[in-house]
Predict the structure of Imidazolonepropionase.
Amino acid sequence: MKKILFKGATLIDGNGGNPIENTAMLVEDKIIKQIGTIEEVQVSQDVEVIELNGRVIMPGLINAHVHIMMEPVGDPFALMTTESETKSILRAVKNLQKHLRSGVTYFRDLGGINYIDLELKKAVDEGFIEGPSFLAAGKMITMTGGHGWQIGRECDGVPEVIKATREQLKAGVDVIKIMATGGVMTAGVEPGSPQLSLEEIRAAVEEANKAGRRTATHAQGTTGIKNAILAGINSVEHGIFLDDETIQLMVEKNVYLVPTLAAPHCIVEAGVEKGVPLQAVEKSKKIITTHFESFNKARKAGVKIAMGTDAGTPFNLHDNSALELKLMMDAGMTAMEAIIASTKTAAELLGIDATHGTLETGKTADFIVLPENPLENIEALYNIETVYKNGKAIKVK
């Protein structure tokens, strides 16, 4: 078994404590065996030593909301439904590499095409292709004509929702994605409008829970968010229109928020000039300020926040998770809070915190090496020197 000692770096472990200078971290067979000062960590002569003086190491980023099969062009849905599946797969393979090389070592995919996401996950796990480890949701559960219908499983009424959810479980998904409201990218629907009912969402959640699966909901409008929370959802994606009552419910019921601030931000920044549909740009402009305000209210109230970008939506790039951390800081987080949301809290949401999310003895050696401290300059995440997945160095450039 290969043993590597990473020596001399400043360590940000993801737990929120002060960085530890001049550390030594011993990795053996993908696992962190020991962390301490250089004086504390005693190693044998057969250990490879990597000097990291002047560098900072922190856990690999965990992105809780990705669409690996979506290409971040002006209209991703149109592209996905017109090009061949072969080309979509080739794009997805490149997108996996982009995430990994930009510091994301784990993510959660929340909607692909025809269960190809499940095959991609297997290929990564088998070492057949390069990419972060990830959880896959298969087809999104949506009402007929609802948000994401182009790639989702349309269903209406409790019996159909139960069947649709069971289909996802039969396919082998890790998480069930439910569409509680309208959204920005689907023409003819409003982001704030409720779609699947409380009873329908509850039916999907109950089926998922029986199979030991967690649930996530696309939910932008207040009524739809409340419906999902009352139905027992695990995480609210986007959460654009959050009132005080909804926020309190999230705290009481331990529901996570994955804000995806980057999604409307990138749409507005790109605009119709780059091919984003006019209706998507107009809807994004209307909600972007409220989105930031809802995020900050939730943060102050103690809602658990996990980083997710919604990568794959218009011009929301697969190698730009750092943008979400910057935007969360713009909306009120400290750098440490943004890092915790992108590591420890995201791992807890995904249910992988026993092995990932923080750098501690016994956990998987997924981490990144930076030339400067992201607590002092979060843009250090744009200049990663090395990504390590399972203790193995990944070529960044």
